[in-house]
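User: what does the whole thing look like in 3D?
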Amino acid sequence: MLYVLRRAGQAVLVLLLAFTVAYLLLAALPGDGVLARYGSAELGLTPEQLAEISAAYGNDRPLVVRFLDAGVGFLTGDFGYSIQSGAAVADLVAVALPSTLLLAGLGLGVAIFLAVSIAFTATYGKGRWLRRAFRNLPPFFVSLPVFWIGIILIQVFSFQLGLVPLINADPVEALILPVLTLAIPIAAPLAQVLMRSIDEVREQPFVTVVRARGASTSWLLWRNVARNALLPTLTMAGLLFGELVGGAVVTEAVFGRPGLGQLTAQAVANRDTPVLLAVVVITTVTFVIINLLVDLLYPVLDARLRRPSTARAAAPRATGSKPTSSAPKKGALR
Amino acid sequence: MSAVVTRTAPSPWRALLRPGTLIPAIVLLVAIAWAVAPGLFTGISPTASVGPSLQAPSAEHWFGTDSTGRDVFARVIHGASQSISGALIAVLVGLVVGTTIGVAAGATGGLVEEALMRVVDVLLAIPSLLLSLSVVILLGFGTTNAAIAVGITSIAVFARLARSQVVGVRVSEYVEAAYGSGGTALGVLWRHILPNSLTPVIALAALQLGSAILQISTLGFLGYGAPPPTPEWGLLIAEGRNYVATAWWLTVLPGVVVVLVVLATNRLSQAIRGGEAA
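Assistant: Here's the predicted 3D structure for the full assembly of 612 residues, as C-alpha coordinates:
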Protein backbone atom coordinates (compact mmCIF):
# COMPACT_ATOMS: atom_id res chain seq x y z
CA MET A 1 0.00 0.00 0.00
CA LEU A 2 2.83 2.31 0.88
CA TYR A 3 4.36 1.54 -2.48
CA VAL A 4 1.12 2.44 -4.26
CA LEU A 5 0.91 5.76 -2.43
CA ARG A 6 4.54 6.58 -3.06
CA ARG A 7 4.28 5.73 -6.72
CA ALA A 8 1.08 7.77 -7.11
CA GLY A 9 2.65 10.71 -5.31
CA GLN A 10 5.61 10.52 -7.63
CA ALA A 11 3.28 10.53 -10.64
CA VAL A 12 1.47 13.62 -9.37
CA LEU A 13 4.78 15.37 -8.77
CA VAL A 14 5.96 14.59 -12.31
CA LEU A 15 2.65 15.84 -13.66
CA LEU A 16 2.93 19.11 -11.78
CA LEU A 17 6.50 19.60 -12.95
CA ALA A 18 5.59 18.69 -16.53
CA PHE A 19 2.74 21.20 -16.51
CA THR A 20 5.12 23.85 -15.21
CA VAL A 21 7.72 23.08 -17.86
CA ALA A 22 5.15 23.03 -20.66
CA TYR A 23 3.58 26.26 -19.41
CA LEU A 24 6.92 28.00 -19.19
CA LEU A 25 7.86 26.76 -22.68
CA LEU A 26 4.58 27.65 -24.33
CA ALA A 27 2.83 30.36 -22.39
CA ALA A 28 5.55 32.40 -20.74
CA LEU A 29 6.08 34.28 -24.00
CA PRO A 30 2.53 35.52 -24.52
CA GLY A 31 3.14 38.16 -27.16
CA ASP A 32 4.15 35.69 -29.84
CA GLY A 33 0.77 34.18 -30.57
CA VAL A 34 -1.04 37.49 -30.50
CA LEU A 35 1.64 39.05 -32.70
CA ALA A 36 1.48 36.15 -35.15
CA ARG A 37 -2.30 36.59 -35.43
CA TYR A 38 -2.68 40.37 -35.33
CA GLY A 39 0.81 41.72 -35.87
CA SER A 40 0.88 41.61 -39.67
CA ALA A 41 1.28 44.93 -41.44
CA GLU A 42 -1.93 44.48 -43.45
CA LEU A 43 -4.08 44.79 -40.34
CA GLY A 44 -2.33 48.07 -39.53
CA LEU A 45 -2.81 47.81 -35.79
CA THR A 46 -0.85 50.19 -33.60
CA PRO A 47 1.31 48.86 -30.75
CA GLU A 48 -1.28 50.21 -28.29
CA GLN A 49 -4.03 48.26 -29.96
CA LEU A 50 -1.88 45.13 -29.92
CA ALA A 51 -1.26 45.62 -26.22
CA GLU A 52 -5.01 45.97 -25.73
CA ILE A 53 -5.66 42.68 -27.52
CA SER A 54 -2.94 41.10 -25.46
CA ALA A 55 -4.62 42.43 -22.33
CA ALA A 56 -7.95 41.02 -23.51
CA TYR A 57 -6.32 37.59 -23.43
CA GLY A 58 -5.22 38.36 -19.89
CA ASN A 59 -1.58 38.48 -20.84
CA ASP A 60 -0.83 41.66 -18.90
CA ARG A 61 -1.17 39.95 -15.54
CA PRO A 62 1.93 38.70 -13.71
CA LEU A 63 3.25 35.32 -14.84
CA VAL A 64 2.52 33.61 -11.52
CA VAL A 65 -1.13 34.66 -11.60
CA ARG A 66 -1.54 33.51 -15.18
CA PHE A 67 0.19 30.23 -14.33
CA LEU A 68 -2.08 29.49 -11.37
CA ASP A 69 -5.10 30.55 -13.39
CA ALA A 70 -4.14 28.18 -16.19
CA GLY A 71 -3.50 25.40 -13.69
CA VAL A 72 -6.96 25.74 -12.16
CA GLY A 73 -8.42 25.98 -15.65
CA PHE A 74 -6.79 22.73 -16.74
CA LEU A 75 -8.05 20.95 -13.64
CA THR A 76 -11.60 22.00 -14.45
CA GLY A 77 -11.32 21.18 -18.15
CA ASP A 78 -10.99 24.79 -19.29
CA PHE A 79 -8.02 24.94 -21.63
CA GLY A 80 -8.35 28.57 -22.65
CA TYR A 81 -8.99 29.90 -26.15
CA SER A 82 -7.22 29.34 -29.44
CA ILE A 83 -5.40 32.45 -30.57
CA GLN A 84 -5.90 31.56 -34.20
CA SER A 85 -9.65 30.90 -34.30
CA GLY A 86 -10.81 32.18 -30.92
CA ALA A 87 -12.65 28.92 -30.29
CA ALA A 88 -12.42 27.21 -26.91
CA VAL A 89 -9.52 24.77 -26.98
CA ALA A 90 -11.58 22.21 -25.08
CA ASP A 91 -14.14 22.21 -27.92
CA LEU A 92 -11.45 21.91 -30.58
CA VAL A 93 -9.95 18.95 -28.79
CA ALA A 94 -13.32 17.32 -28.20
CA VAL A 95 -14.13 17.53 -31.91
CA ALA A 96 -10.73 16.23 -32.99
CA LEU A 97 -10.33 13.45 -30.45
CA PRO A 98 -12.72 10.69 -31.69
CA SER A 99 -11.17 10.43 -35.13
CA THR A 100 -7.66 10.23 -33.68
CA LEU A 101 -8.70 7.73 -31.01
CA LEU A 102 -10.15 5.50 -33.72
CA LEU A 103 -6.99 5.78 -35.79
CA ALA A 104 -4.70 5.19 -32.81
CA GLY A 105 -6.79 2.30 -31.45
CA LEU A 106 -6.88 0.49 -34.78
CA GLY A 107 -3.21 1.28 -35.37
CA LEU A 108 -2.26 -0.20 -32.02
CA GLY A 109 -4.36 -3.30 -32.68
CA VAL A 110 -2.79 -3.89 -36.09
CA ALA A 111 0.66 -3.16 -34.62
CA ILE A 112 0.19 -5.79 -31.90
CA PHE A 113 -0.96 -8.32 -34.49
CA LEU A 114 2.01 -7.49 -36.72
CA ALA A 115 4.46 -7.62 -33.83
CA VAL A 116 3.20 -10.98 -32.57
CA SER A 117 3.31 -12.45 -36.07
CA ILE A 118 6.82 -11.15 -36.67
CA ALA A 119 8.10 -12.29 -33.28
CA PHE A 120 6.62 -15.79 -33.53
CA THR A 121 7.81 -16.28 -37.10
CA ALA A 122 11.25 -14.99 -36.18
CA THR A 123 11.60 -17.38 -33.27
CA TYR A 124 9.60 -20.45 -34.28
CA GLY A 125 9.23 -20.04 -38.04
CA LYS A 126 10.03 -22.86 -40.41
CA GLY A 127 13.46 -22.57 -41.95
CA ARG A 128 16.51 -20.59 -40.89
CA TRP A 129 16.19 -18.25 -43.81
CA LEU A 130 12.65 -17.22 -42.90
CA ARG A 131 13.57 -16.68 -39.27
CA ARG A 132 16.53 -14.53 -40.22
CA ALA A 133 14.45 -12.42 -42.58
CA PHE A 134 11.79 -11.79 -39.95
CA ARG A 135 14.40 -11.07 -37.30
CA ASN A 136 15.72 -8.26 -39.47
CA LEU A 137 12.29 -6.76 -40.06
CA PRO A 138 12.00 -4.68 -36.85
CA PRO A 139 15.37 -2.92 -37.20
CA PHE A 140 14.36 -2.16 -40.76
CA PHE A 141 10.94 -0.81 -39.76
CA VAL A 142 12.53 1.39 -37.10
CA SER A 143 14.68 3.03 -39.78
CA LEU A 144 11.73 4.12 -41.93
CA PRO A 145 10.45 7.70 -41.65
CA VAL A 146 6.75 7.45 -40.80
CA PHE A 147 5.71 10.05 -43.35
CA TRP A 148 7.61 8.16 -46.04
CA ILE A 149 5.82 4.90 -45.17
CA GLY A 150 2.53 6.72 -45.71
CA ILE A 151 3.58 8.14 -49.05
CA ILE A 152 4.90 4.78 -50.27
CA LEU A 153 1.69 3.04 -49.19
CA ILE A 154 -0.35 5.61 -51.11
CA GLN A 155 1.88 5.15 -54.11
CA VAL A 156 1.71 1.36 -54.13
CA PHE A 157 -1.84 0.65 -53.05
CA SER A 158 -3.67 3.67 -54.43
CA PHE A 159 -1.83 4.55 -57.60
CA GLN A 160 0.04 1.44 -58.76
CA LEU A 161 -2.37 -1.28 -57.73
CA GLY A 162 -5.51 0.86 -57.49
CA LEU A 163 -6.71 -1.18 -54.49
CA VAL A 164 -7.56 1.63 -52.07
CA PRO A 165 -9.14 4.76 -53.54
CA LEU A 166 -7.92 8.08 -52.20
CA ILE A 167 -10.74 10.17 -53.60
CA ASN A 168 -14.35 9.37 -52.71
CA ALA A 169 -13.20 6.71 -50.28
CA ASP A 170 -15.77 5.44 -47.80
CA PRO A 171 -14.78 5.78 -44.11
CA VAL A 172 -13.42 2.24 -43.91
CA GLU A 173 -11.30 2.56 -47.03
CA ALA A 174 -10.02 5.92 -45.85
CA LEU A 175 -8.76 4.26 -42.67
CA ILE A 176 -6.83 1.35 -44.18
CA LEU A 177 -3.65 3.13 -45.23
CA PRO A 178 -3.39 5.52 -42.26
CA VAL A 179 -3.81 2.62 -39.84
CA LEU A 180 -1.08 0.65 -41.61
CA THR A 181 1.20 3.70 -41.65
CA LEU A 182 0.76 4.13 -37.93
CA ALA A 183 1.07 0.42 -37.16
CA ILE A 184 4.40 -0.31 -38.84
CA PRO A 185 6.69 1.91 -36.71
CA ILE A 186 4.86 0.85 -33.55
CA ALA A 187 5.06 -2.84 -34.36
CA ALA A 188 8.84 -2.66 -34.65
CA PRO A 189 9.90 -1.97 -31.03
CA LEU A 190 7.10 -4.21 -29.81
CA ALA A 191 8.32 -7.10 -31.96
CA GLN A 192 11.88 -6.50 -30.78
CA VAL A 193 10.93 -6.77 -27.12
CA LEU A 194 8.73 -9.80 -27.80
CA MET A 195 11.51 -11.58 -29.68
CA ARG A 196 14.03 -10.86 -26.97
CA SER A 197 11.78 -12.12 -24.20
CA ILE A 198 10.72 -15.19 -26.17
CA ASP A 199 14.41 -15.95 -26.69
CA GLU A 200 14.99 -15.59 -22.97
CA VAL A 201 11.98 -17.60 -21.87
CA ARG A 202 12.62 -20.53 -24.19
CA GLU A 203 16.05 -20.99 -22.61
CA GLN A 204 14.38 -21.57 -19.25
CA PRO A 205 14.45 -25.13 -17.90
CA PHE A 206 10.68 -25.30 -17.47
CA VAL A 207 10.20 -25.02 -21.22
CA THR A 208 12.25 -28.16 -21.74
CA VAL A 209 10.17 -29.92 -19.09
CA VAL A 210 6.89 -28.95 -20.71
CA ARG A 211 8.28 -30.00 -24.07
CA ALA A 212 9.40 -33.35 -22.65
CA ARG A 213 5.91 -33.99 -21.37
CA GLY A 214 4.70 -33.88 -24.95
CA ALA A 215 3.50 -30.34 -25.42
CA SER A 216 3.25 -29.17 -29.00
CA THR A 217 4.97 -26.02 -30.16
CA SER A 218 1.77 -24.02 -30.31
CA TRP A 219 0.73 -25.14 -26.82
CA LEU A 220 4.12 -24.12 -25.58
CA LEU A 221 3.93 -20.78 -27.34
CA TRP A 222 0.51 -19.72 -26.16
CA ARG A 223 0.43 -21.30 -22.72
CA ASN A 224 3.97 -20.76 -21.51
CA VAL A 225 6.20 -18.60 -23.62
CA ALA A 226 3.68 -15.93 -24.56
CA ARG A 227 2.48 -15.51 -20.98
CA ASN A 228 5.99 -14.97 -19.74
CA ALA A 229 6.94 -12.71 -22.60
CA LEU A 230 3.93 -10.51 -21.93
CA LEU A 231 5.41 -8.83 -18.87
CA PRO A 232 8.41 -7.12 -20.48
CA THR A 233 6.09 -6.05 -23.26
CA LEU A 234 3.84 -4.32 -20.78
CA THR A 235 6.63 -1.98 -19.71
CA MET A 236 6.63 -0.71 -23.29
CA ALA A 237 3.13 0.71 -22.93
CA GLY A 238 4.24 4.25 -22.12
CA LEU A 239 6.79 4.30 -24.90
CA LEU A 240 4.23 2.99 -27.37
CA PHE A 241 1.80 5.71 -26.36
CA GLY A 242 4.41 8.35 -27.15
CA GLU A 243 5.02 6.72 -30.52
CA LEU A 244 1.28 6.63 -31.18
CA VAL A 245 0.94 10.35 -30.48
CA GLY A 246 3.88 11.26 -32.70
CA GLY A 247 2.72 8.82 -35.36
CA ALA A 248 -0.79 10.27 -35.32
CA VAL A 249 0.53 13.79 -35.94
CA VAL A 250 2.57 12.64 -38.93
CA THR A 251 -0.03 10.23 -40.30
CA GLU A 252 -2.81 12.78 -40.18
CA ALA A 253 -0.55 15.28 -41.91
CA VAL A 254 0.28 12.82 -44.70
CA PHE A 255 -3.29 11.69 -45.30
CA GLY A 256 -4.92 15.03 -44.58
CA ARG A 257 -7.16 13.42 -41.96
CA PRO A 258 -8.78 15.75 -39.44
CA GLY A 259 -7.92 14.95 -35.85
CA LEU A 260 -5.78 15.76 -32.87
CA GLY A 261 -2.57 15.40 -34.88
CA GLN A 262 -3.79 17.78 -37.56
CA LEU A 263 -4.85 20.20 -34.82
CA THR A 264 -1.36 19.99 -33.32
CA ALA A 265 0.38 20.52 -36.64
CA GLN A 266 -1.77 23.56 -37.39
CA ALA A 267 -1.21 24.95 -33.92
CA VAL A 268 2.54 24.81 -34.44
CA ALA A 269 2.31 26.34 -37.91
CA ASN A 270 0.20 29.23 -36.56
CA ARG A 271 2.12 29.52 -33.28
CA ASP A 272 -1.17 28.86 -31.52
CA THR A 273 0.37 28.10 -28.15
CA PRO A 274 -2.82 27.51 -26.09
CA VAL A 275 -3.80 24.63 -28.38
CA LEU A 276 -0.35 23.07 -28.29
CA LEU A 277 -0.20 23.50 -24.51
CA ALA A 278 -3.51 21.67 -24.14
CA VAL A 279 -2.38 18.82 -26.40
CA VAL A 280 0.94 18.51 -24.56
CA VAL A 281 -0.72 18.49 -21.15
CA ILE A 282 -3.43 16.00 -22.13
CA THR A 283 -0.94 13.55 -23.65
CA THR A 284 1.45 13.93 -20.72
CA VAL A 285 -1.31 13.19 -18.23
CA THR A 286 -2.23 10.11 -20.25
CA PHE A 287 1.38 9.00 -20.44
CA VAL A 288 1.94 9.37 -16.70
CA ILE A 289 -1.29 7.51 -15.91
CA ILE A 290 -0.35 4.66 -18.26
CA ASN A 291 3.05 4.31 -16.64
CA LEU A 292 1.52 4.45 -13.18
CA LEU A 293 -0.98 1.72 -14.08
CA VAL A 294 1.76 -0.45 -15.58
CA ASP A 295 3.90 -0.08 -12.48
CA LEU A 296 0.96 -0.93 -10.25
CA LEU A 297 -0.19 -3.82 -12.43
CA TYR A 298 3.23 -5.38 -12.61
CA PRO A 299 3.17 -6.97 -9.14
CA VAL A 300 -0.40 -8.15 -9.76
CA LEU A 301 0.59 -9.98 -12.93
CA ASP A 302 3.93 -11.29 -11.74
CA ALA A 303 3.75 -13.17 -8.47
CA ARG A 304 7.50 -12.92 -8.07
CA LEU A 305 7.22 -9.17 -7.56
CA ARG A 306 4.58 -9.34 -4.87
CA ARG A 307 7.04 -9.31 -2.01
CA PRO A 308 6.75 -6.08 -0.02
CA SER A 309 10.29 -4.93 -0.63
CA THR A 310 11.83 -1.64 -1.55
CA ALA A 311 13.65 -3.29 -4.39
CA ARG A 312 10.64 -2.49 -6.53
CA ALA A 313 11.42 1.20 -6.33
CA ALA A 314 14.06 0.65 -8.95
CA ALA A 315 11.66 -1.16 -11.28
CA PRO A 316 12.44 -1.00 -14.96
CA ARG A 317 10.43 1.58 -16.80
CA ALA A 318 9.84 1.86 -20.47
CA THR A 319 12.45 4.13 -21.93
CA GLY A 320 12.89 2.70 -25.35
CA SER A 321 15.48 0.52 -26.96
CA LYS A 322 18.70 1.59 -25.47
CA PRO A 323 21.83 -0.28 -24.63
CA THR A 324 21.67 -2.15 -21.38
CA SER A 325 24.30 -1.47 -18.82
CA SER A 326 25.97 -4.83 -19.30
CA ALA A 327 29.01 -3.43 -21.04
CA PRO A 328 32.29 -4.73 -19.69
CA LYS A 329 33.83 -2.38 -17.21
CA LYS A 330 37.47 -2.39 -18.05
CA GLY A 331 39.80 -2.78 -15.15
CA ALA A 332 37.02 -3.48 -12.71
CA LEU A 333 37.37 -6.05 -9.95
CA ARG A 334 40.93 -7.10 -10.41
CA MET B 1 32.77 7.98 -36.97
CA SER B 2 36.19 6.33 -36.84
CA ALA B 3 37.09 8.43 -33.83
CA VAL B 4 34.20 6.88 -31.97
CA VAL B 5 35.29 3.38 -32.92
CA THR B 6 38.82 3.87 -31.70
CA ARG B 7 37.64 5.51 -28.51
CA THR B 8 35.39 2.70 -27.42
CA ALA B 9 37.20 -0.60 -27.83
CA PRO B 10 39.87 -2.22 -29.93
CA SER B 11 37.78 -5.27 -30.87
CA PRO B 12 35.42 -3.52 -33.34
CA TRP B 13 38.40 -3.04 -35.67
CA ARG B 14 38.31 -6.71 -36.51
CA ALA B 15 34.53 -6.62 -36.72
CA LEU B 16 34.77 -3.64 -39.03
CA LEU B 17 35.99 -5.87 -41.83
CA ARG B 18 32.84 -8.01 -41.82
CA PRO B 19 30.45 -7.07 -44.63
CA GLY B 20 27.69 -6.50 -42.07
CA THR B 21 29.73 -3.64 -40.66
CA LEU B 22 31.71 -2.61 -43.70
CA ILE B 23 28.72 -1.74 -45.88
CA PRO B 24 27.02 0.50 -43.28
CA ALA B 25 30.38 2.16 -42.63
CA ILE B 26 30.78 2.91 -46.33
CA VAL B 27 27.19 4.21 -46.58
CA LEU B 28 27.76 6.52 -43.64
CA LEU B 29 31.12 7.72 -44.94
CA VAL B 30 29.60 8.54 -48.30
CA ALA B 31 26.77 10.44 -46.61
CA ILE B 32 29.24 12.38 -44.47
CA ALA B 33 31.33 13.12 -47.57
CA TRP B 34 28.18 14.44 -49.24
CA ALA B 35 27.59 16.68 -46.25
CA VAL B 36 31.16 17.95 -46.11
CA ALA B 37 31.93 18.38 -49.80
CA PRO B 38 28.81 18.14 -51.96
CA GLY B 39 30.69 19.77 -54.83
CA LEU B 40 32.80 16.65 -55.28
CA PHE B 41 29.80 14.49 -56.10
CA THR B 42 27.76 16.75 -58.31
CA GLY B 43 28.52 19.85 -60.28
CA ILE B 44 24.84 20.72 -60.49
CA SER B 45 23.41 23.42 -58.27
CA PRO B 46 20.63 22.16 -55.98
CA THR B 47 18.46 25.20 -56.58
CA ALA B 48 18.92 25.86 -60.30
CA SER B 49 16.61 24.54 -63.02
CA VAL B 50 18.77 22.35 -65.22
CA GLY B 51 16.29 20.63 -67.48
CA PRO B 52 12.66 19.95 -68.27
CA SER B 53 10.51 19.43 -65.20
CA LEU B 54 9.46 16.00 -63.89
CA GLN B 55 11.93 13.94 -65.92
CA ALA B 56 12.23 10.30 -64.90
CA PRO B 57 15.64 9.14 -63.63
CA SER B 58 18.20 8.90 -66.42
CA ALA B 59 21.97 8.71 -66.87
CA GLU B 60 22.06 12.49 -66.88
CA HIS B 61 19.84 13.06 -63.85
CA TRP B 62 20.17 9.97 -61.64
CA PHE B 63 17.19 10.78 -59.46
CA GLY B 64 15.26 12.63 -62.19
CA THR B 65 14.13 16.24 -61.98
CA ASP B 66 11.44 17.86 -59.86
CA SER B 67 8.51 20.10 -60.73
CA THR B 68 10.71 23.09 -61.47
CA GLY B 69 13.38 21.11 -63.32
CA ARG B 70 15.89 20.91 -60.48
CA ASP B 71 18.15 17.86 -60.30
CA VAL B 72 16.89 15.70 -57.43
CA PHE B 73 20.19 13.85 -56.97
CA ALA B 74 22.02 17.15 -56.53
CA ARG B 75 19.37 18.23 -54.04
CA VAL B 76 19.75 15.01 -52.06
CA ILE B 77 23.55 15.41 -51.96
CA HIS B 78 23.34 19.03 -50.85
CA GLY B 79 20.57 18.09 -48.43
CA ALA B 80 22.99 15.79 -46.62
CA SER B 81 24.76 18.77 -45.08
CA GLN B 82 21.46 20.09 -43.70
CA SER B 83 20.24 16.75 -42.40
CA ILE B 84 23.49 15.28 -41.13
CA SER B 85 24.86 18.43 -39.52
CA GLY B 86 21.42 18.87 -37.96
CA ALA B 87 21.58 15.34 -36.61
CA LEU B 88 25.07 15.94 -35.23
CA ILE B 89 23.89 19.09 -33.45
CA ALA B 90 20.94 17.18 -32.04
CA VAL B 91 23.09 14.33 -30.74
CA LEU B 92 25.62 16.78 -29.34
CA VAL B 93 22.92 18.66 -27.41
CA GLY B 94 21.52 15.42 -26.01
CA LEU B 95 24.93 13.95 -25.28
CA VAL B 96 26.43 16.99 -23.57
CA VAL B 97 23.42 18.14 -21.58
CA GLY B 98 22.09 14.65 -20.87
CA THR B 99 25.44 13.21 -19.82
CA THR B 100 26.18 16.23 -17.65
CA ILE B 101 22.86 15.84 -15.86
CA GLY B 102 23.30 12.10 -15.53
CA VAL B 103 26.88 12.25 -14.29
CA ALA B 104 26.07 15.07 -11.89
CA ALA B 105 23.14 13.09 -10.52
CA GLY B 106 25.06 9.84 -10.28
CA ALA B 107 28.21 11.36 -8.80
CA THR B 108 26.57 13.55 -6.14
CA GLY B 109 23.60 11.47 -5.05
CA GLY B 110 21.18 12.64 -2.41
CA LEU B 111 18.85 15.57 -2.99
CA VAL B 112 20.62 16.83 -6.10
CA GLU B 113 20.24 13.43 -7.72
CA GLU B 114 16.58 13.24 -6.74
CA ALA B 115 15.86 16.69 -8.18
CA LEU B 116 17.77 16.10 -11.41
CA MET B 117 16.12 12.75 -12.03
CA ARG B 118 12.64 14.24 -11.51
CA VAL B 119 13.49 16.74 -14.26
CA VAL B 120 14.49 13.81 -16.44
CA ASP B 121 11.18 12.08 -15.62
CA VAL B 122 9.37 15.18 -16.81
CA LEU B 123 11.29 15.21 -20.08
CA LEU B 124 10.41 11.55 -20.55
CA ALA B 125 6.75 12.13 -19.77
CA ILE B 126 6.13 14.49 -22.67
CA PRO B 127 5.90 12.55 -25.97
CA SER B 128 9.05 13.37 -27.91
CA LEU B 129 7.43 14.79 -31.02
CA LEU B 130 5.27 17.13 -28.92
CA LEU B 131 8.28 18.18 -26.86
CA SER B 132 10.25 19.01 -29.98
CA LEU B 133 7.26 20.86 -31.44
CA SER B 134 7.00 22.92 -28.24
CA VAL B 135 10.67 23.84 -28.51
CA VAL B 136 10.32 24.63 -32.20
CA ILE B 137 7.36 26.91 -31.53
CA LEU B 138 9.51 28.69 -28.95
CA LEU B 139 12.71 28.98 -31.00
CA GLY B 140 11.13 29.46 -34.40
CA PHE B 141 11.46 27.34 -37.54
CA GLY B 142 14.75 26.35 -39.17
CA THR B 143 17.08 23.38 -39.36
CA THR B 144 19.27 24.40 -36.41
CA ASN B 145 16.26 25.07 -34.21
CA ALA B 146 14.70 21.77 -35.24
CA ALA B 147 18.00 20.07 -34.44
CA ILE B 148 18.13 21.63 -30.97
CA ALA B 149 14.52 20.60 -30.40
CA VAL B 150 15.29 17.01 -31.37
CA GLY B 151 18.38 17.09 -29.16
CA ILE B 152 16.33 18.18 -26.17
CA THR B 153 14.08 15.16 -26.56
CA SER B 154 17.07 12.85 -26.19
CA ILE B 155 18.49 14.52 -23.06
CA ALA B 156 16.45 12.28 -20.78
CA VAL B 157 17.66 9.04 -22.35
CA PHE B 158 21.30 10.10 -22.14
CA ALA B 159 20.88 11.30 -18.56
CA ARG B 160 19.31 8.04 -17.39
CA LEU B 161 21.96 5.90 -19.01
CA ALA B 162 24.85 8.05 -17.79
CA ARG B 163 23.49 8.08 -14.26
CA SER B 164 23.00 4.32 -14.10
CA GLN B 165 26.53 3.82 -15.45
CA VAL B 166 28.11 6.24 -12.99
CA VAL B 167 26.20 4.79 -10.05
CA GLY B 168 27.39 1.32 -11.06
CA VAL B 169 31.03 2.39 -11.27
CA ARG B 170 30.95 4.60 -8.19
CA VAL B 171 30.53 1.67 -5.80
CA SER B 172 33.26 -0.46 -7.37
CA GLU B 173 36.43 -1.26 -5.44
CA TYR B 174 38.87 0.54 -7.65
CA VAL B 175 37.03 3.82 -7.16
CA GLU B 176 37.13 3.25 -3.43
CA ALA B 177 40.84 2.53 -3.77
CA ALA B 178 41.34 5.75 -5.72
CA TYR B 179 39.66 7.71 -2.97
CA GLY B 180 41.70 5.82 -0.42
CA SER B 181 44.95 6.77 -2.09
CA GLY B 182 44.07 10.43 -1.76
CA GLY B 183 42.13 11.27 -4.92
CA THR B 184 39.86 14.29 -4.87
CA ALA B 185 36.23 13.86 -5.85
CA LEU B 186 36.68 15.64 -9.16
CA GLY B 187 39.94 13.86 -9.92
CA VAL B 188 38.43 10.44 -9.31
CA LEU B 189 35.38 11.36 -11.35
CA TRP B 190 37.52 12.45 -14.27
CA ARG B 191 40.20 9.74 -14.18
CA HIS B 192 38.27 6.68 -13.06
CA ILE B 193 34.52 7.05 -13.12
CA LEU B 194 34.00 8.76 -16.48
CA PRO B 195 36.31 6.60 -18.62
CA ASN B 196 34.77 3.46 -17.19
CA SER B 197 31.17 4.43 -17.55
CA LEU B 198 30.79 6.24 -20.85
CA THR B 199 31.21 3.48 -23.46
CA PRO B 200 27.47 2.65 -23.54
CA VAL B 201 26.76 6.38 -23.68
CA ILE B 202 28.89 6.69 -26.82
CA ALA B 203 27.08 3.72 -28.34
CA LEU B 204 23.79 5.42 -27.54
CA ALA B 205 25.05 8.58 -29.25
CA ALA B 206 25.67 6.57 -32.41
CA LEU B 207 22.19 5.08 -32.19
CA GLN B 208 20.65 8.50 -31.58
CA LEU B 209 22.30 9.82 -34.73
CA GLY B 210 20.00 7.68 -36.84
CA SER B 211 16.91 8.57 -34.90
CA ALA B 212 17.89 12.25 -34.98
CA ILE B 213 18.08 12.13 -38.79
CA LEU B 214 14.59 10.59 -38.78
CA GLN B 215 13.15 13.15 -36.37
CA ILE B 216 14.71 16.13 -38.12
CA SER B 217 13.40 14.93 -41.47
CA THR B 218 9.98 14.54 -39.85
CA LEU B 219 10.06 18.13 -38.62
CA GLY B 220 11.25 19.20 -42.07
CA PHE B 221 8.43 17.25 -43.68
CA LEU B 222 5.87 18.94 -41.45
CA GLY B 223 7.30 22.27 -42.57
CA TYR B 224 9.01 23.35 -39.35
CA GLY B 225 12.56 22.94 -40.61
CA ALA B 226 14.43 24.83 -43.27
CA PRO B 227 12.35 27.10 -45.55
CA PRO B 228 11.46 25.76 -49.05
CA PRO B 229 14.32 26.30 -51.46
CA THR B 230 16.69 24.63 -49.01
CA PRO B 231 17.34 20.99 -49.98
CA GLU B 232 16.57 19.32 -46.65
CA TRP B 233 15.67 15.62 -46.88
CA GLY B 234 12.30 15.79 -45.16
CA LEU B 235 11.32 18.90 -47.07
CA LEU B 236 12.44 17.27 -50.31
CA ILE B 237 10.02 14.41 -49.77
CA ALA B 238 7.27 16.82 -48.72
CA GLU B 239 7.72 18.77 -51.95
CA GLY B 240 7.52 15.61 -54.04
CA ARG B 241 4.34 14.52 -52.28
CA ASN B 242 2.03 16.28 -54.73
CA TYR B 243 3.48 14.30 -57.62
CA VAL B 244 3.14 10.84 -56.12
CA ALA B 245 0.91 9.68 -58.97
CA THR B 246 3.07 10.91 -61.83
CA ALA B 247 6.65 11.23 -60.53
CA TRP B 248 7.41 8.45 -58.04
CA TRP B 249 11.14 9.24 -57.99
CA LEU B 250 10.61 12.55 -56.18
CA THR B 251 9.54 10.80 -52.99
CA VAL B 252 10.89 7.26 -53.32
CA LEU B 253 14.55 7.95 -54.07
CA PRO B 254 15.26 10.61 -51.39
CA GLY B 255 13.38 8.39 -48.94
CA VAL B 256 15.56 5.41 -49.83
CA VAL B 257 18.65 7.52 -49.13
CA VAL B 258 17.29 8.50 -45.69
CA VAL B 259 16.45 4.89 -44.88
CA LEU B 260 19.89 3.64 -45.96
CA VAL B 261 21.71 6.23 -43.85
CA VAL B 262 19.54 5.55 -40.79
CA LEU B 263 19.93 1.78 -41.21
CA ALA B 264 23.69 2.26 -41.49
CA THR B 265 23.95 4.25 -38.26
CA ASN B 266 21.79 1.73 -36.44
CA ARG B 267 23.98 -1.15 -37.63
CA LEU B 268 27.15 0.66 -36.64
CA SER B 269 25.94 1.52 -33.17
CA GLN B 270 25.16 -2.16 -32.77
CA ALA B 271 28.71 -2.95 -33.83
CA ILE B 272 30.12 -0.46 -31.31
CA ARG B 273 28.12 -2.14 -28.62
CA GLY B 274 29.56 -5.37 -29.94
CA GLY B 275 26.34 -7.24 -29.41
CA GLU B 276 23.81 -8.97 -31.58
CA ALA B 277 20.56 -7.88 -29.96
CA ALA B 278 19.40 -4.38 -30.73
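In plain terms: Residues 309-334 of chain A have pLDDT under 50 and may be disordered. Residues 19 and 71 of chain A are 8 Å apart (CA to CA).
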